[in-house]
Design a protein that fits this description.
Elements lengths: L11 H10 L16 E9 L7 H16 L3 E2 L2 H14 L5 H8 L3 E10 L2 E10 L5 E10 L13 H15 L19 E12 L13 H16 L5 E3 L2 H10 L13 H9 L4 E11 L2 E11 L5 E11 L4 H15 L4
Parallel strand pairs: 1-2, 1-3, 6-7, 6-8
Antiparallel strand pairs: 3-4, 4-5, 8-9, 9-10
Helix pairs in contact: 1-2, 2-5, 6-9
Length: 340
């Protein structure tokens, strides 16, 4: 499928989402299929660092996400608010279940949107069944990739759409919900993934310039960012950049974590508590005077701060410049995260 891009390099579906969010009749741009089960978002909660404008963007994002599923439709916020206002004239204490029933919804959804530095988290709790007593829940993550020029100008729409799709698919227990969607809407539930460190190991006396003690901190930091960039578009993982990872550590009062040292148990527990269950651990080894090797491990983080090896890769580094290491890191990251 060929799709158009705007000046941010965004696919048509996201352009539609942005236009919808800016319109007073946003969800009317997405034609509903009345025969499909309806979902009503009865409440949206935003994290303290999320602007209020994201509420109307949530309406547009979920409308497009459900439309792309070809299995559900969203009741627009405007319709929901009109029904709620009418009901409150008779009873000020309208419950979510009563509102969903009035709207003819099969599910009543409660949505929460949070941000941790450069990662957006959307959680969905769907009530359904008799008296809406049954519960389904799901979480979706996405990288906040785009800005209009500064920390205060985050473009939420692309990440919000992806995270909404992932959260809703997870809540319905349907990881293949978007398998047949258009290419730029083909989204799957994804796991958080953190690059932890690049360890330097020297087996011979004469080492590469990459092992220069004064340059190691910079080289290791650059390695973490290179791994992030190599993984950021992976369909099944949502990687953390260094700033986001360090924000996680800071929440646990862990500061000045070295990018050249393996994480300790306390650091791994901090990651686990923030729902980060997978990590990439790297190792650069001076095998001989003229030979460098790069190893990488994909590990699962356990609740007690231990690691379970899932996959391991190793390759030779062609050269001893930073650019050579960057190429090797990109190659090994994509190799170890290959789809099974």
């Amino acid at each position: 499928m060929i799709f158009s891009l705007n000046r941010f390099g965004l696919p048509w579906a996201v352009c539609l989402l942005i236009a919808a969010a800016q319109s007073s009749a946003q969800t009317k741009q997405i034609p509903p299929t009345e025969s499909l089960p309806a979902v009503a978002i009865v409440n949206v909660r935003l994290g303290a660092n999320i602007p209020e404008a994201v509420i109307r963007k949530t309406d547009a994002a979920f409308a497009l996400a459900l439309f792309a599923s070809d299995k559900y439709r969203l009741i627009p916020f405007a319709e929901r608010d009109s029904a709620l206002a009418s009901m409150r004239r008779e009873n000020p204490d309208v419950t979510a279940a009563q509102l969903a029933q009035r709207l003819g919804a099969a599910q009543a959804a409660f949505v929460t949107v949070n941000r941790l530095q450069n990662i957006l988290r959307v959680s969905v709790s769907c009530r359904y069944g008799q008296n809406f007593a049954d519960l389904r829940e799901g979480i979706g993550y996405a990288v906040l990739k785009y800005r209009r020029g500064g920390e205060d100008s985050i473009l939420y729409d692309p990440a919000l759409l992806i995270a909404a799709q992932r959260a809703f698919a997870a809540s319905q227990g349907d990881s293949m919900m978007y398998k047949k969607a258009d290419r730029d809407m083909r989204v799957f539930p994804a796991k958080l993934l953190v690059p932890t460190h690049l360890e330097f190991k020297q087996k011979v006396g004469t080492a590469s310039t990459l092992f220069d003690p004064q340059k190691k901190p910079v080289t290791a930091y650059d390695a973490m960012q290179t791994i992030f960039l190599a993984a950021k578009d992976h369909p099944l993982y949502v990687p953390l950049d260094v700033d986001t990872r360090d924000s996680v550590y800071a929440l646990a009062n862990l500061y000045d974590v070295e990018n050249a040292n393996p994480p300790n148990v306390v650091e791994l527990r901090a990651l686990y508590q923030l729902e980060i269950r997978h990590c990439l651990m790297s190792e650069l080894t001076q095998e001989t005077k003229d030979a460098l090797s790069l190893g990488m491990k994909l590990c699962e983080i356990t609740a007690d701060g231990n690691l379970r090896l899932l996959r391991e890769e190793k390759l030779a580094v062609d050269g001893d410049r930073v650019k050579d290491l960057q190429r090797a890191l990109t190659k090994i990251t994509r190799k170890i995260l290959r789809e099974r």
